[in-house]
Amino acid sequence: MTVQALAPTTYTVAPTTFDYRIITGTNLDLSDDSSAAITSPFPILFGGGSFGTVFVGSNGNVNFTGAFATPSNEPLPTSQIATLVAPWWDDLFPVVGTGQNVFWAVTGTAPSRELVIEWRDVRHFSCRSDGAATVRFQVVFFEGSSNLLFNYADATFGALCAGFGSRRLRHGRVQVSPNGGTQVSFNTQSLSDNTALLWTATATAPPPTINVTRALDPSAVCLLGARKTEPSPCRTPARRCQRTATAGPHSSSLPEVPTPFPLARASG
Ligand SMILES: [Ca+2]
């Protein structure tokens, strides 16, 4: 059999047309510095891998590695998590039991569905007492594509948060492995309301082809029908194995064992 692995992938990023996905979605009802795992109905292609589970963090990022709720961001690549998609990694503050939280939905029909994860009107921890100081953005994963889309409907906390200045606005980063990451900005204000970033995946090398040869193991076949009280009855040679198996207590369920044993070999 031939195994075709996915190629390692890097990302380039560029502004694109703003087209915010309006979803009702499921409210993850996250608390401060928390994470939730969601299961996508289609495989998420990312960085040369394929993933069924997406870990959604309250602090403006998702990953495919595990729960991650660290509020203190750092330049990429980070050693804190192997995979990271960070539209806005910052100390955000969703409010439990309210609509100021993180929502997700799957839209469209196969094979062109989208997984949309939205941080909807979430606050910043530093000015969490002000319900009007919020941001709203989302990440979109596309079925059958490793590309990503960041949409920013509200990229300015404003209100009480305005006093903190732009240094607290950090966003637009993708990391695909501990050794590689692409970021748009770090601790600077680089995006405006109603803007979008499209991350385009590029394979960095041809995908490796792995040839696998599988051989039947005579002893493995014979052991199915051997009495456990017999010391190693199913060693080679093959003919002895076949006789032992036929005489065993489960012989009626054993398949006919050809001699010599065939070597299964598949390719291409
Ligand atoms: Ca937080």
Strand content: 35-45%
Overall number of domains = 2
- Helical content stands at under 10%
Number of helices, where a helix is a run of at least 4 consecutive DSSP H or I residues: 2
Major sheet: 8 strands, antiparallel
H/E element sequence? EEEEEEEEEEEEEEEEHH
Structural account:
Residues 1-5, 165-169 and 216-268 have low confidence and may be disordered. The protein has helices at 218-222, 238-247; strands at 2-4, 9-15, 26-27, 35-46, 49-57, 61-63, 84-86, 92-93, 101-107, 114-124, 134-142, 148-154, 173-177, 180-183, 195-203, 209-211. Strands 2, 3, 8, 9, 10, 11, 12 and 15 form an eight-stranded antiparallel β-sheet that branches. A three-stranded antiparallel β-sheet has the order 4-5-6, with no helix packed on it. Strands 7-13-14 form a three-stranded antiparallel β-sheet, with no helix packed on it. The protein has 268 residues and is mainly β. The termini are close together. It is built from two helices and 16 strands. The chain folds into two domains: 2-205, no CATH class; 213-268, no CATH class.
How do the helices and strands line up, and which of them pair or pack?
Elements (H helix, E strand, L loop, with lengths): L1 E3 L4 E7 L10 E2 L7 E12 L2 E9 L3 E3 L20 E3 L5 E2 L7 E7 L6 E11 L9 E9 L5 E7 L18 E5 L2 E4 L11 E9 L5 E3 L6 H5 L15 H10 L21
The site of calcium ion has 9 residues, from β8.
